[in-house]
Amino acid sequence: MIFNGAGSALREAELPGPEPGPGQARLNVQACAVCRTDLHIVDGELPDPKLPLVLGHQIVGFVSEVGEGASRFAVGERVGVPWLGWTDGTCRFCRSRRENLCDRARFTGYQIDGGFAEETVADERYCLRIPESYSDLQVAPLLCAGLIGYRSLVMTGDAERLGLYGFGASAHIIAQVARWQSRRVFAFTRAGDEEGQRFARSLGAEWAGSSTEMPPEELDAAIIFAPVGELVPAALAAVAKGGVVVCAGIHMSEIPSFSYDLLWGERVLRSVANLTRKDGEEFMELAPKVPVRTEIREFRLEEANEALQHLRAGELRGAAVLKIG
Predict the structure, then answer these.
(1) What sign has the CA pseudo-torsion 206, 212, 214, 220?
(2) How far separated are the first and last CA of the chain, in Å rounded?
(3) Of 75, 84, 287, 312, which has the fewest beta carbons less than 10 angstroms from its beta carbon?
(4) Burial 209-219 (b: 16+ CB within 10 A, else e)
(5) Measured distance CA(21)–CA(16) in Å, rounded
Protein backbone atom coordinates (compact mmCIF):
# COMPACT_ATOMS: atom_id res chain seq x y z
CA MET A 1 0.00 0.00 0.00
CA ILE A 2 1.56 3.27 -1.14
CA PHE A 3 0.91 6.79 0.21
CA ASN A 4 1.21 9.21 -2.66
CA GLY A 5 0.75 12.47 -0.79
CA ALA A 6 -2.90 12.93 -1.74
CA GLY A 7 -4.68 13.00 1.58
CA SER A 8 -5.54 9.51 2.79
CA ALA A 9 -5.07 7.95 -0.65
CA LEU A 10 -3.45 4.58 -0.40
CA ARG A 11 -3.36 2.13 -3.24
CA GLU A 12 -2.26 -1.41 -3.80
CA ALA A 13 0.81 -1.71 -5.97
CA GLU A 14 2.89 -4.39 -7.54
CA LEU A 15 6.38 -3.55 -6.36
CA PRO A 16 9.58 -5.33 -7.29
CA GLY A 17 11.15 -7.18 -4.37
CA PRO A 18 13.47 -4.71 -2.63
CA GLU A 19 17.13 -5.66 -2.73
CA PRO A 20 19.02 -5.43 0.56
CA GLY A 21 22.02 -3.12 0.53
CA PRO A 22 25.10 -3.38 2.73
CA GLY A 23 24.10 -4.05 6.33
CA GLN A 24 20.46 -4.54 5.41
CA ALA A 25 18.05 -7.45 5.57
CA ARG A 26 15.14 -8.16 3.27
CA LEU A 27 12.03 -9.29 5.09
CA ASN A 28 8.90 -11.16 4.16
CA VAL A 29 6.39 -9.09 6.11
CA GLN A 30 3.95 -11.09 8.21
CA ALA A 31 2.15 -8.31 10.07
CA CYS A 32 2.30 -4.55 10.57
CA ALA A 33 0.39 -2.66 13.24
CA VAL A 34 -1.28 0.63 12.39
CA CYS A 35 -0.22 3.70 14.37
CA ARG A 36 -1.60 7.19 14.84
CA THR A 37 1.68 8.44 13.39
CA ASP A 38 0.61 6.86 10.09
CA LEU A 39 -2.44 9.12 10.24
CA HIS A 40 -0.31 12.18 11.00
CA ILE A 41 1.76 11.42 7.89
CA VAL A 42 -1.28 10.84 5.68
CA ASP A 43 -2.96 14.02 6.97
CA GLY A 44 0.14 16.13 6.29
CA GLU A 45 0.79 16.89 9.96
CA LEU A 46 4.36 15.59 9.72
CA PRO A 47 6.38 17.47 7.10
CA ASP A 48 8.33 16.19 4.11
CA PRO A 49 7.70 12.45 4.03
CA LYS A 50 9.45 10.42 1.36
CA LEU A 51 7.10 10.27 -1.64
CA PRO A 52 5.88 7.90 -2.84
CA LEU A 53 5.98 6.17 0.52
CA VAL A 54 5.08 2.76 1.90
CA LEU A 55 3.67 3.45 5.36
CA GLY A 56 4.01 1.27 8.45
CA HIS A 57 6.59 1.06 11.23
CA GLN A 58 5.50 -1.78 13.52
CA ILE A 59 6.73 -4.57 11.26
CA VAL A 60 7.07 -8.27 11.97
CA GLY A 61 8.78 -10.32 9.30
CA PHE A 62 11.08 -13.20 8.47
CA VAL A 63 14.53 -12.52 7.04
CA SER A 64 14.62 -13.75 3.45
CA GLU A 65 17.96 -12.32 2.34
CA VAL A 66 20.83 -10.35 3.85
CA GLY A 67 23.05 -7.76 2.24
CA GLU A 68 26.81 -7.54 2.27
CA GLY A 69 28.21 -7.33 5.79
CA ALA A 70 24.90 -8.11 7.48
CA SER A 71 25.42 -10.74 10.17
CA ARG A 72 23.08 -10.07 13.10
CA PHE A 73 20.24 -12.20 11.76
CA ALA A 74 20.08 -15.42 9.78
CA VAL A 75 17.77 -16.16 6.88
CA GLY A 76 14.49 -17.47 8.34
CA GLU A 77 14.81 -15.58 11.62
CA ARG A 78 11.82 -13.50 12.77
CA VAL A 79 12.55 -9.85 13.59
CA GLY A 80 10.73 -6.64 14.40
CA VAL A 81 11.26 -3.28 12.71
CA PRO A 82 10.36 -0.17 14.77
CA TRP A 83 10.00 3.54 13.99
CA LEU A 84 13.71 4.41 14.39
CA GLY A 85 15.30 3.12 11.20
CA TRP A 86 18.74 4.77 11.02
CA THR A 87 20.97 7.28 12.84
CA ASP A 88 24.36 8.70 11.92
CA GLY A 89 26.08 7.30 15.03
CA THR A 90 28.50 10.21 15.19
CA CYS A 91 26.57 13.27 16.39
CA ARG A 92 26.59 14.47 20.01
CA PHE A 93 23.20 12.86 20.61
CA CYS A 94 24.26 9.46 19.30
CA ARG A 95 27.55 9.63 21.19
CA SER A 96 25.70 10.39 24.45
CA ARG A 97 23.27 7.45 24.07
CA ARG A 98 20.44 9.74 22.91
CA GLU A 99 20.19 8.43 19.37
CA ASN A 100 16.44 9.12 19.43
CA LEU A 101 17.35 12.83 19.13
CA CYS A 102 19.78 12.45 16.21
CA ASP A 103 19.20 15.34 13.79
CA ARG A 104 19.88 13.09 10.79
CA ALA A 105 17.76 10.16 11.99
CA ARG A 106 15.54 8.44 9.45
CA PHE A 107 12.30 6.76 10.38
CA THR A 108 10.52 3.67 9.08
CA GLY A 109 7.35 4.39 7.15
CA TYR A 110 8.29 8.08 6.90
CA GLN A 111 11.71 8.56 5.29
CA ILE A 112 12.21 4.81 4.74
CA ASP A 113 9.62 2.55 3.09
CA GLY A 114 7.74 0.61 5.74
CA GLY A 115 5.64 -2.46 6.29
CA PHE A 116 2.30 -1.94 4.54
CA ALA A 117 3.73 -4.31 1.94
CA GLU A 118 4.57 -7.95 1.39
CA GLU A 119 8.31 -7.25 1.49
CA THR A 120 10.55 -4.57 2.89
CA VAL A 121 14.21 -3.94 3.65
CA ALA A 122 15.63 -2.62 6.90
CA ASP A 123 18.98 -1.76 8.43
CA GLU A 124 19.71 -4.82 10.56
CA ARG A 125 21.25 -2.69 13.32
CA TYR A 126 17.84 -1.19 14.07
CA CYS A 127 15.84 -4.42 13.92
CA LEU A 128 14.81 -6.09 17.16
CA ARG A 129 14.66 -9.67 18.31
CA ILE A 130 11.11 -10.32 19.41
CA PRO A 131 9.81 -12.77 22.02
CA GLU A 132 8.99 -16.22 20.68
CA SER A 133 5.90 -16.43 22.89
CA TYR A 134 4.01 -13.84 20.82
CA SER A 135 2.28 -14.43 17.51
CA ASP A 136 3.04 -12.07 14.62
CA LEU A 137 -0.22 -10.18 15.09
CA GLN A 138 0.06 -9.93 18.86
CA VAL A 139 3.64 -8.69 18.93
CA ALA A 140 3.33 -6.03 16.20
CA PRO A 141 1.78 -3.32 18.45
CA LEU A 142 4.64 -3.68 20.92
CA LEU A 143 7.02 -2.24 18.29
CA CYS A 144 5.73 1.34 18.64
CA ALA A 145 2.67 1.57 20.86
CA GLY A 146 4.52 -0.52 23.42
CA LEU A 147 7.95 1.04 22.97
CA ILE A 148 6.84 4.67 23.09
CA GLY A 149 4.57 3.85 26.01
CA TYR A 150 7.46 2.17 27.80
CA ARG A 151 9.81 5.13 27.28
CA SER A 152 7.07 7.46 28.52
CA LEU A 153 6.47 5.31 31.59
CA VAL A 154 10.18 5.36 32.45
CA MET A 155 10.03 9.17 32.30
CA THR A 156 7.47 9.18 35.14
CA GLY A 157 10.03 7.77 37.57
CA ASP A 158 8.51 5.91 40.50
CA ALA A 159 5.13 7.67 40.34
CA GLU A 160 2.52 5.58 42.14
CA ARG A 161 -0.67 7.27 40.94
CA LEU A 162 -0.48 7.32 37.15
CA GLY A 163 -2.94 8.99 34.80
CA LEU A 164 -3.23 7.82 31.18
CA TYR A 165 -4.92 10.30 28.83
CA GLY A 166 -6.23 8.59 25.70
CA PHE A 167 -6.82 4.89 26.20
CA GLY A 168 -5.79 3.41 22.88
CA ALA A 169 -3.01 1.16 21.62
CA SER A 170 -0.22 2.53 23.82
CA ALA A 171 -2.25 3.02 26.98
CA HIS A 172 -3.78 -0.45 26.96
CA ILE A 173 -0.26 -1.92 26.88
CA ILE A 174 1.32 0.39 29.44
CA ALA A 175 -1.59 0.05 31.85
CA GLN A 176 -0.66 -3.63 32.14
CA VAL A 177 3.00 -2.83 32.77
CA ALA A 178 2.10 -0.17 35.34
CA ARG A 179 -0.17 -2.55 37.26
CA TRP A 180 2.56 -5.22 37.18
CA GLN A 181 4.83 -2.60 38.77
CA SER A 182 2.20 -2.05 41.50
CA ARG A 183 1.28 1.43 40.29
CA ARG A 184 -2.29 2.71 40.51
CA VAL A 185 -3.78 3.54 37.11
CA PHE A 186 -6.34 6.26 36.35
CA ALA A 187 -7.64 6.25 32.77
CA PHE A 188 -9.03 9.21 30.82
CA THR A 189 -11.03 8.76 27.62
CA ARG A 190 -13.16 10.86 25.30
CA ALA A 191 -16.31 12.12 26.96
CA GLY A 192 -19.04 9.50 26.74
CA ASP A 193 -16.71 6.64 25.81
CA GLU A 194 -18.14 4.20 28.30
CA GLU A 195 -16.85 1.18 26.40
CA GLY A 196 -13.30 2.57 26.52
CA GLN A 197 -13.67 3.19 30.23
CA ARG A 198 -14.87 -0.36 30.82
CA PHE A 199 -11.91 -1.60 28.79
CA ALA A 200 -9.52 0.41 30.97
CA ARG A 201 -11.04 -0.96 34.16
CA SER A 202 -10.78 -4.51 32.79
CA LEU A 203 -7.01 -3.95 32.49
CA GLY A 204 -6.65 -2.83 36.08
CA ALA A 205 -7.48 0.88 36.09
CA GLU A 206 -9.05 1.67 39.45
CA TRP A 207 -10.81 4.72 38.01
CA ALA A 208 -11.81 5.59 34.44
CA GLY A 209 -13.58 8.72 33.31
CA SER A 210 -13.67 11.55 30.82
CA SER A 211 -10.59 13.65 30.11
CA THR A 212 -12.72 16.65 31.09
CA GLU A 213 -13.07 15.29 34.63
CA MET A 214 -10.70 15.53 37.56
CA PRO A 215 -9.61 12.18 39.02
CA PRO A 216 -10.82 11.30 42.52
CA GLU A 217 -7.39 12.15 43.92
CA GLU A 218 -4.22 13.88 42.80
CA LEU A 219 -1.91 12.07 40.42
CA ASP A 220 1.84 11.67 40.79
CA ALA A 221 2.33 11.58 37.01
CA ALA A 222 0.36 11.57 33.78
CA ILE A 223 1.10 10.40 30.26
CA ILE A 224 -0.79 12.05 27.40
CA PHE A 225 -1.18 9.67 24.47
CA ALA A 226 -4.00 11.55 22.72
CA PRO A 227 -2.70 14.22 20.28
CA VAL A 228 -4.84 16.91 21.92
CA GLY A 229 -3.07 20.02 23.21
CA GLU A 230 -5.96 20.94 25.48
CA LEU A 231 -5.10 17.94 27.64
CA VAL A 232 -1.81 19.49 28.76
CA PRO A 233 -3.30 22.04 31.19
CA ALA A 234 -5.91 19.46 32.23
CA ALA A 235 -3.19 16.96 33.13
CA LEU A 236 -1.12 19.60 34.93
CA ALA A 237 -4.18 20.49 36.99
CA ALA A 238 -4.62 16.84 37.95
CA VAL A 239 -0.99 16.27 38.96
CA ALA A 240 0.24 16.96 42.47
CA LYS A 241 3.18 19.25 43.22
CA GLY A 242 6.40 17.64 42.09
CA GLY A 243 4.53 15.56 39.53
CA VAL A 244 5.38 14.89 35.89
CA VAL A 245 3.29 15.23 32.73
CA VAL A 246 4.72 13.38 29.72
CA CYS A 247 3.52 14.14 26.18
CA ALA A 248 4.03 10.86 24.32
CA GLY A 249 2.92 11.73 20.78
CA ILE A 250 5.05 12.83 17.85
CA HIS A 251 2.41 15.42 16.96
CA MET A 252 -0.06 17.37 19.10
CA SER A 253 -2.57 20.10 18.39
CA GLU A 254 -1.88 23.58 19.74
CA ILE A 255 -1.45 23.75 23.51
CA PRO A 256 -3.60 26.58 24.91
CA SER A 257 -2.09 29.13 27.23
CA PHE A 258 -2.47 28.33 30.91
CA SER A 259 -1.82 29.95 34.25
CA TYR A 260 1.65 29.55 35.72
CA ASP A 261 0.19 28.15 38.92
CA LEU A 262 -0.54 24.89 37.01
CA LEU A 263 3.21 24.46 36.43
CA TRP A 264 4.41 25.93 39.71
CA GLY A 265 5.21 23.62 42.60
CA GLU A 266 8.04 21.91 40.70
CA ARG A 267 5.73 20.16 38.29
CA VAL A 268 7.52 18.97 35.16
CA LEU A 269 6.16 19.05 31.60
CA ARG A 270 8.18 17.08 29.06
CA SER A 271 7.92 15.26 25.76
CA VAL A 272 9.13 11.87 24.62
CA ALA A 273 10.74 11.74 21.19
CA ASN A 274 11.03 8.51 19.26
CA LEU A 275 12.87 5.60 20.92
CA THR A 276 16.30 4.09 21.28
CA ARG A 277 17.44 0.57 20.52
CA LYS A 278 18.04 0.16 24.24
CA ASP A 279 14.35 0.92 24.87
CA GLY A 280 13.45 -1.80 22.38
CA GLU A 281 15.72 -4.41 23.90
CA GLU A 282 14.52 -3.67 27.44
CA PHE A 283 10.84 -3.73 26.56
CA MET A 284 11.04 -6.90 24.48
CA GLU A 285 12.58 -8.58 27.52
CA LEU A 286 10.00 -7.13 29.91
CA ALA A 287 6.78 -7.72 27.93
CA PRO A 288 6.67 -11.53 28.33
CA LYS A 289 7.35 -11.24 32.07
CA VAL A 290 4.25 -9.12 32.74
CA PRO A 291 2.94 -10.70 30.47
CA VAL A 292 1.58 -7.96 28.23
CA ARG A 293 -1.46 -9.06 26.22
CA THR A 294 -2.35 -6.95 23.21
CA GLU A 295 -5.96 -6.38 22.21
CA ILE A 296 -6.01 -6.27 18.42
CA ARG A 297 -8.39 -5.92 15.51
CA GLU A 298 -7.16 -7.70 12.41
CA PHE A 299 -7.33 -6.22 8.90
CA ARG A 300 -6.08 -7.43 5.54
CA LEU A 301 -3.43 -5.40 3.71
CA GLU A 302 -6.02 -4.17 1.21
CA GLU A 303 -8.09 -2.87 4.15
CA ALA A 304 -5.36 -0.47 5.33
CA ASN A 305 -7.47 2.60 4.51
CA GLU A 306 -10.35 1.15 6.51
CA ALA A 307 -8.06 0.55 9.48
CA LEU A 308 -6.84 4.15 9.32
CA GLN A 309 -10.41 5.46 9.24
CA HIS A 310 -11.38 3.40 12.28
CA LEU A 311 -8.33 4.78 14.09
CA ARG A 312 -9.21 8.36 13.11
CA ALA A 313 -12.77 7.90 14.40
CA GLY A 314 -11.62 6.41 17.71
CA GLU A 315 -13.48 3.18 16.98
CA LEU A 316 -10.69 0.75 17.86
CA ARG A 317 -10.27 -1.06 21.14
CA GLY A 318 -6.56 -1.64 21.43
CA ALA A 319 -4.61 -1.75 18.18
CA ALA A 320 -5.30 -2.34 14.48
CA VAL A 321 -2.95 -4.83 12.82
CA LEU A 322 -2.59 -5.68 9.14
CA LYS A 323 -2.18 -9.41 8.52
CA ILE A 324 0.08 -9.70 5.51
CA GLY A 325 2.10 -12.92 5.43
Answers:
(1) positive
(2) 14
(3) 75
(4) bebeeebeeeb
(5) 15
SS3 222: strand
3-class state of residue 264 by DSSP: coil
Strand (E) positions, 150-288?
161-165, 184-189, 207-210, 219-224, 239-247, 268-271
- My answer on whether omega of the bond before 52 falls inside 30° of 0, hence cis, is yes
Q: What is the pTM of this model?
A: 0.93
Please provide the average confidence, as pLDDT, over all residues in the chain: 94
Query: Residues 251, 46: contact at Cβ < 8 Å?
Result: yes
What span, in angstroms and rounded, lies between the C-alpha atoms of 64 and 41? 29
Gap between the Cα atoms of 139 and 296, Å rounded = 10
Q: For helices 169-180 and 194-202, what crossing angle results, to 10°?
A: 30
Evaluate if residue 11 carries a pLDDT over 80: no
Nearest to 138 by CA among 293, 9, 274: 293
Kind plus residue range of the DSSP H or E element containing 37: helix 36-42
